[in-house]
């Protein structure tokens, strides 16, 4: 049996051995070094939160649903509550195109065009 030096990638070494790609037991065969392919995560740069307005009066808040189970029901109840308790705030219910990670430039332009704000119900 040929020895394989592990550089943190034990799973890859086992895969090499199982597929027969590991060197056979022979003195003229090279010694394989297996490195961990996951790499090192980059440093995360922190960003400040968006500035918050002093008041929501006169503003438009978009309630955006991404079609996750029941998100639409929650947002519609939120819209009813806001109509009663925050009458000076306009709400717009919208369903975003695609899954929650997909871009919806048309919707974002609409929200920006009225200087609106957004609450997105993504579930969980």
Task: Describe this structure as you would to a colleague.
By secondary structure, this protein is an alpha/beta fold. It folds into two domains: 31 residues, no CATH class; 62 residues, no CATH class. 27% of the residues lie in helices and 19% in strands. The protein contains three helices and five strands. Strands 4-3-5 form a three-stranded parallel beta sheet, with helices on both faces. Helix 2 links the parallel strand 3 and strand 4. It is elongated and about 85 Å long. About 4% of the residues have low confidence.
Low-confidence stretches: 9-13
Strands ordered across the widest β-sheet? 4-3-5
Number of strands: 5
Strand pairing plus helix content: what structural class?
alpha/beta
Instruction: Give helix and strand order, one letter per element, not per position.
Output: EHEEHEHE
Q: Please give the share of residues in helix.
A: 25-40%
Total number of domains: 2
Overall body shape: elongated
Q: Can you give the mean pLDDT?
A: 82
**Separate helix tally:** 3
Strand content: 15-25%
* Rg for CA atoms: 27 Å
Query: How far is the first residue's CA from the last residue's CA?
Result: 50 Å
Q: Tell me the major beta sheet.
A: 3 strands, parallel
